[in-house]
């Protein structure tokens, strides 16, 4: 095993062996590349993230949700128990490691189980119900990276605990659709399904196994291993080989009990009341095992390639399975990279905030110092302001102010200083005027806000 000692990484105190945490290609350590499937959000792009994050927060609050923050990692067992040990996420995709005390730790592969853990740990069920929570989190899955699929992605998610009524299923769907509408994202399809409850699933599993029994040898090895314990997972298999075998597979929706059927009909009524179109898609299974009754996905058909922007559903047994009191739950996770990708693909313009309102151009050390004072005055009234820190020529300072799209520049020169004035230049039309230092902040505030 290649081990590299790098005093730079640790800085002080000696050497640090870090071969296992460093990306390598052909034996060469990739110090200047993000790990595969991850990406930087650069300053030039971050405004898109702020726009999406601000929108989801605003709409969530408008729907009566409050934010919850949970750790980036949890005990591995929470995910194994919560998501299900025969899911792709748990079997193949988790970032799991032992910490220095030998505990098995996993970076969040999804957001629901941690929120359920927190709901139980802090007895949130003792507060007025329902509990309506939202979160914005990084999610880690060891998947094959491709456009819109990453090893670290970000989700906006919501979870509602304590409400059994299908109106709340419609409410979370409505929330997701409202967010897309507000951002201007179009060409969306809402697909809904009901995947039954433990009562009706038992019989269905038997029928499913009956159907799959003769096809077992043609299924992939993963599906073969799921046949006994979790046959419904097979419907969700991405392999073409398995999909060929299950073309006329019996589907849960056609075998649900009266309670599930009533719930599904209720959901449809509430969606109609919210004027939300939907397609019933009996093939939706979802990739996580905790779902009961409602399962839904919001997909887009951009450039002919279907992508899931948002997925969720009801999970009435999860709180109990994780050690809490019997409490129904429903929620969704919305991929933020995919939302931004849709905004870009659909050519939706996101307002780009400028870096500076005002840039102070100075000439000489005394002017620089005065500029520093003026900067504080401008910032104190809430204006975005900066000045040169690189000893640039006046011409270069103007050029920089122009590039940064400052509305105004303030010129502080030795002559003006003596008179207690500055020159204010409108960067759009080039007009200049002389202003007293005393009133520069109030004048600019009035003009710019
Ligand atoms: P999920 O369907 O696994 O559900 O993920 C939710 C959303 O995250 C997806 O619809 C997609 O937009 C995005 N996403 C998933 N994997 C990736 C990836 N590798 N790269 C980029 N984006 C991705 C859940 O995680 C559930 N916890 C949702 C939920 C909350 N259900 C009930 N409450």
From TrEMBL:
<dbReference type="InterPro" id="IPR006195">
    <property type="entry name" value="aa-tRNA-synth_II"/>
</dbReference>
<dbReference type="InterPro" id="IPR004154">
    <property type="entry name" value="Anticodon-bd"/>
</dbReference>
<dbReference type="InterPro" id="IPR015807">
    <property type="entry name" value="His-tRNA-ligase"/>
</dbReference>
<dbReference type="GO" id="GO:0140096">
    <property type="term" value="F:catalytic activity, acting on a protein"/>
</dbReference>
<keyword id="KW-0030">Aminoacyl-tRNA synthetase</keyword>
<dbReference type="GO" id="GO:0006427">
    <property type="term" value="P:histidyl-tRNA aminoacylation"/>
</dbReference>
<feature type="binding site">
    <location>
        <begin position="110"/>
        <end position="112"/>
    </location>
    <ligand>
        <name>L-histidine</name>
    </ligand>
</feature>
<feature type="binding site">
    <location>
        <position position="286"/>
    </location>
    <ligand>
        <name>L-histidine</name>
    </ligand>
</feature>
<feature type="binding site">
    <location>
        <position position="141"/>
    </location>
    <ligand>
        <name>L-histidine</name>
    </ligand>
</feature>
<dbReference type="InterPro" id="IPR033656">
    <property type="entry name" value="HisRS_anticodon"/>
</dbReference>
<dbReference type="InterPro" id="IPR036621">
    <property type="entry name" value="Anticodon-bd_dom_sf"/>
</dbReference>
<keyword id="KW-0067">ATP-binding</keyword>
<feature type="binding site">
    <location>
        <position position="159"/>
    </location>
    <ligand>
        <name>L-histidine</name>
    </ligand>
</feature>
<comment type="similarity">
    <text>Belongs to the class-II aminoacyl-tRNA synthetase family.</text>
</comment>
<feature type="domain" description="Aminoacyl-transfer RNA synthetases class-II family profile">
    <location>
        <begin position="52"/>
        <end position="351"/>
    </location>
</feature>
<dbReference type="Pfam" id="PF03129">
    <property type="entry name" value="HGTP_anticodon"/>
</dbReference>
<dbReference type="InterPro" id="IPR041715">
    <property type="entry name" value="HisRS-like_core"/>
</dbReference>
<keyword id="KW-0963">Cytoplasm</keyword>
<dbReference type="GO" id="GO:0005737">
    <property type="term" value="C:cytoplasm"/>
</dbReference>
<keyword id="KW-0436">Ligase</keyword>
<protein>
    <recommendedName>
        <fullName>Histidine--tRNA ligase</fullName>
        <ecNumber>6.1.1.21</ecNumber>
    </recommendedName>
</protein>
<feature type="binding site">
    <location>
        <position position="155"/>
    </location>
    <ligand>
        <name>L-histidine</name>
    </ligand>
</feature>
<dbReference type="InterPro" id="IPR004516">
    <property type="entry name" value="HisRS/HisZ"/>
</dbReference>
<keyword id="KW-0547">Nucleotide-binding</keyword>
<dbReference type="GO" id="GO:0004821">
    <property type="term" value="F:histidine-tRNA ligase activity"/>
</dbReference>
<dbReference type="InterPro" id="IPR045864">
    <property type="entry name" value="aa-tRNA-synth_II/BPL/LPL"/>
</dbReference>
<dbReference type="GO" id="GO:0005524">
    <property type="term" value="F:ATP binding"/>
</dbReference>
<keyword id="KW-0648">Protein biosynthesis</keyword>
<feature type="binding site">
    <location>
        <begin position="290"/>
        <end position="291"/>
    </location>
    <ligand>
        <name>L-histidine</name>
    </ligand>
</feature>
<comment type="subunit">
    <text>Homodimer.</text>
</comment>
<dbReference type="Pfam" id="PF13393">
    <property type="entry name" value="tRNA-synt_His"/>
</dbReference>
<dbReference type="GO" id="GO:0016740">
    <property type="term" value="F:transferase activity"/>
</dbReference>
